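Cysteine synthase
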Amino acid sequence: MRGMRDYPTIEETIGRTPLVRLQRLAADAAERGTVVLAKLEGTNPAGSVKDRPALSMIATAEAEGRIRPGDTVIEATSGNTGIALAMVAAVRGYAMVLVMPADLSVERARTMTAYGARLVLTDPAGGMELARTTADAMEAAGEGVQLDQFANPANPAAHMAATAEEIWSQTGGRVTHFVSSMGTTGTLTGTGRRLRELSDAVRIVGVQPEEGSRIPGIRAWEPEFLPRIFDPTVPHEVRNVNQDDATRTTRALAREEGILAGMSAGGAAHVALGLAATERDATIVFIVPDRGDRYLSTDLFATD
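Predicted structure tokens:
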């Protein structure tokens, strides 16, 4: 007979996400022995790669005695981290307050409130910078405890402990390139750092938007707002992607590979496919941070 603890909790289903091979978009690369693999983080229970650091940050804050059930937790977020934190907060008994620009997608806002979070919306013109300073002010006023994904070492630590190890295991140690879009930079920093420890041969590539391009989930930060968790020694290079290329590649992932994802995945895929166009016998892994159903109310998948 199975006991109660033989069944997982929702938290215990975080991670162990699939790694799938691109077929049609990477057909030419396959002729040169190169494989392009997508790490599908949208299969996490709250729907994104941010489930990993959300659980890590809350569990670490509990272990350090900074928070306990019943407390209020505050976080500035552009969306996915907020959803993930709202899910973990619901499980562990915290009041969750999420501060973000008011132009987030309808799906994201409704998902956060479905988990019980309260939203504080800031002027979109101020971007994430305004959301972050607002969260700082709320914490200073005693309205709650801020986890601060941009400076919290528990963010990249989650990817060192799990994401990188999964990629290494799933590729049998054959991964040659790791590509990740750069938002809070936790995924790139943590996964890249650990992969470089596992092999000197792995090349780490960050992705950020070209000047003037707006790609949800990817940022090129002003120096004063650069996340403190970012380690510039981790990526071997950082490549820029423009909004049109990211959009086209996101649509192509859905229509030619059956991968419905957000635009940050399209940006990373565009860079990964660019690498694949010149590499032989390479194993290129890129992160698909979330699912595309979070963007159906936007024009991301609009048809001509």
